[in-house]
Amino acid sequence: xxxxxxxxxxxxxxxxxxxxxxxxxxxxxxxxxxxxxxxxxxxxxxxxxxxxxxxxxxxxxxxxxxxxxxxxxxxxxxxxxxxxxxxxxxxxxxxxxxxxxxxxxxxxxxxxxxxxxxxxxxxxxxxxxxxxxxxxxxxxxxxxxxxxxxxxxxxxxxxxxxxxxxxxxxxxxxxxxxxxxxxxxxxxxxxxxxxxxxxxxxxxxxxxxxxxxxxxxxxxxxxxxxxxxxxxxxxxxxxxxxxxxxxxxxxxxxxxxxxxxxxxxxxxxxxxxxxxxxxxxxxxxxxxxxxxxxxxxxxxxxxxxxxxxxxxxxxxxxxxxxxxxxxxxxxxxxxxxxxxxxxxxxxxxxxxxxxxxxxxx
Length: 361
Hints:
about 50% helix; 3-stranded antiparallel beta sheet; mainly alpha
């Protein structure tokens, strides 16, 4: 040990001042300072060439079209959303058009997208927009966040994609891109962390228009190239700077992802019960519902759950229908409902739920 090293070892480490950044914060700041050259420019250029022509990205979609797409894309791939989205906007081109209908009509039109409580929440948001904001989707982020069924992700996505504002839009695809390219790990944590939010904010371009474009571009990169499985590094515009790739692509060391089962679950039973009610033009007798599933205990449990979630309305005489009045679905804004399987999502990684705005493949 040299004399200098001896003095360094003997001297106590200086205490950081309250304003001193932590090592993690300092790393985040350094990354942000270099982001324009290493990340923004190549990803935005790639997006300019490879962005998909999706209807909710077109100017005529407006804020309402963007909001509808964000609800539908939660845990559901683009290919399944496209036909339902087109039908939805043709029938309800404005929030007030949807608000004027019974919530059960939203559930009916939702079809087999899966997680049908999203339909109730979208109907509730349309009612609130009509009553509080004159039928126009609000521009203000706080007002968006105050709408029923709107969580942190959806409010940021609508403000960014519809109004070109500067917000960190953290869906599963974006989180995975940041985890690999910046943090150097294969998958992000199961739930969004404060550190991820800080990093996303630090990486935002200062210019509002560029920040909104960056949000869409980083999301598209995760959906098309930096996918959960079989990532295509040869097509990635930032492969040369990707921390995970440069480290040799170390394997994920967290809990293994458990695949979502569907066959034989209460979700499947609920989907079958809802399918009968969606097709019916009049209230349905209990016997018609009994015919879709042989096991009576599971069938009754599934039906009770649909009633509790506000997706089914019981009537006198043992009859049922889709909700005709104001619905008050249980649970948080993130979709946790049931119905037909949402189809293969784009998970953040092992054990990671897709969550709001998850799959955009």
